[in-house]
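step 4 of 6: structure.
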Amino acid sequence: MHDIGSKPALRAELLANRAELSVDVRSAAGRSIRDALLGVPELEMAGTVAAYASIGSEPETHGLLFALWKRGTYVILPRLLPDGDLDWASYEGPDSLVPGPFGLLEPTERARGVDAIASADVVLVPALAVDRTGVRLGRGGGSYDRVLARVSPAVLTVALVYEGELLDALPVEPHDRRVRAAVTPDSGLHLLGDAN
Ligand SMILES: Nc1ncnc2c1ncn2[C@@H]1O[C@H](COP(=O)(O)OP(=O)(O)OP(=O)(O)O)[C@@H](O)[C@H]1O
Ligand SMILES: [Mg+2]
């Protein structure tokens, strides 16, 4: 078990590893994750999926967003609020995204409010790493801890990570919210937590 104080060092190490990945590796990871997720029954049945537009060294999600949208899923994406919380608006194709703060790509459609996340049937979240119990390490804004607190425990929540980012144990604080699953490029969906 890592010490809580080691979160910043872990983030730096994980981001340094990601910085080594080529654009091709990021794209290939995105395609593999897209294909794995499109075949998950909960995603196939979902009316609404909350997701995010990848930036920088994250596994590429734009192909996944497009595929979900094309098959008729209602996709909502986050818009960063000044206090670090996330608002939500619908994805209406690749042209419906514009640059936001911190290099983010955000939806242009009408914002639905922070509670719109509660209408999602599946929630896909970014992470720098996730552990076998579902603890996730994000960028350090606490945004997704707030988001996940509004999501029913019955909803499938999935962190999208590279292969080596599914770890045995991560530091966890009382405010940290777990995800129920992780998806990796090579081995697809992993259910996390005590029951798995
Ligand atoms: N529900 C909340 N309301 C307000 N602040 C919060 C909440 N949850 C966490 N925070 C704050 O966010 C900060 C960062 O939290 P943490 O280190 O867990 O980030 P993270 O999980 O890596 O980031 P993110 O969720 O954005 O991916 C902490 O200082 C924490 O107090
Ligand atoms: Mg957290």
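step 5 of 6: annotate
 - The helical segments are 7-19, 23-38, 41-45, 62-70, 143-148.
 - Residues 7, 137-146, 149, 173, 175-176 surround adenosine-5'-triphosphate (ligand 1) (CB under 6 Å).
step 6 of 6: archive
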